[in-house]
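ok so for the tutorial part 2 we go from a plain amino acid sequence to predicted structure tokens. step 1 is just haveing the sequence, like this:
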Amino acid sequence: MTNNIEININDEREIRLRKLKELQEMNISIYPARINRKQTIKEALDAKEDAELSVAGRLMTKRDMGKLMFCHLQDESGRMQIAFKQDDIGIDNYKLFSKKIDSGDIVEVQGKKFMTHKGEPSILVSSWTLLAKTLLPLPDKFHGLNDEEVRYRKRYLDLLVNPEEKAKIIVRGKILRYIREFLQNENFIEVETPVLETISSGAMARTFDTHLNAYDLDVHLRICMGELWQKRLLVGGFEKTFEMGRAFRNEGVDHQHNPEFTMLEYYWAYADYEDNMTLHEKLIPYVVENSIGKLEVEVDEHKINFAGPYPRITFHDAVLKYSGIDIDEFTDLEELKKVMSAKGYDHENLTERGKLLDNLYKQSARKELIQPTFVLNYPIELKPLAKKAEDPRYTEMFQLIVNGFELSNSYTELNDPIDQRERFEEQVKNKAEGDDEAMANDWSYVEALEHGMPPATGTGIGIDRFAALITGSHTLREVTAFPLMKPVEEVEEKDEKKK
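step 2 — the prediction. this is what the tokens look like for a chain of 499 residues:
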């Protein structure tokens, strides 16, 4: 932002402050507590001609033609033209609005609906009330709010002047609503599990760490939606549970990752991952269609159809199909790395088999999966909480991949306490060898399993990714009301060092 623009904004603020003081001197309330709105803008637009209306909203445009003034008023439901005639409301009242009320101010107007000669529904104003005087102007209507840094730092302006961005937040809210509605109709019980944990488990990720003074105890913000807690509920006799909320991972930030994000996790006793795939083929279309009104969305150059059923392919076969490498033939990691290098894949000098296979899969197969596709049976090293498949090198689990995104992650849950203890021990070993993302061991959870957990399946769905996908957004920030931003001072200091 240039100094000239800053000066212009400051000048405008001084002008508006003078208007505010002048209004106060006239004993006009600047920020009254009471309003008399009877209709929303949408209801006013739908009303019959000559209907008496009382609406309120933000003044978005203002065009004074002398004795006739046209403005546009906007609320959450829409935008409508309002008209002032000097002869109708009086010269003093007309001039007061013309001279002291600015675009961006929030006002209430009463009047009668009419149609202009161009057929535009409008309100002929008979009286008006100021509800809130703005001291700073809205973004320039010609240049808009295009700077991405400014858009996310002043998100309230972005949502106000860019209706397509506001629409994405509305869709996100609908996704939450219809997921909850679907699961409750399927007799799932919504639960709440701890956000602060002494052992942060349920995923392989770095944690945000803090200290609880009251207990003199180090704790972590949860990295998933209470997976091990919800499974304890299965031990306790619940059969269908779900939770939606915020999770936190102290990792990188990019178009597919945020440090805090919204997740859904649900757990279903006496069902397996085959049942879960069938449930997905009902849940996902239900949520998509109710949230955006259709099942097909356009993302980049692709048209993606969420109508089920979805094709299935194993992790092994997906890697073989898109890379030409049969991972079952390689027990020696160095040999696999050589083959990867020969085929142009970066092995990043990884030393753990699971991470190396995941690296190869992401480089070769996942980005090729555009239409909703179930990828089944990931290597056991990647899924320490999933039950082993018939081939014990793999697990009974699936991910739903759409446009190269992992939309959901689901298992047939491991309920064998001996197997679970061994896998936790392997994770402890990995952490001791320097793997910061290795899963923390939770021996109290193993003890809970020893009391018996029924066969079960579970799912985790990233809501941010889901919302980005069906709104055609290219970054999770676009579907986040207020994404985390570095303080302005740090940004300015960094820019100064670059000079």
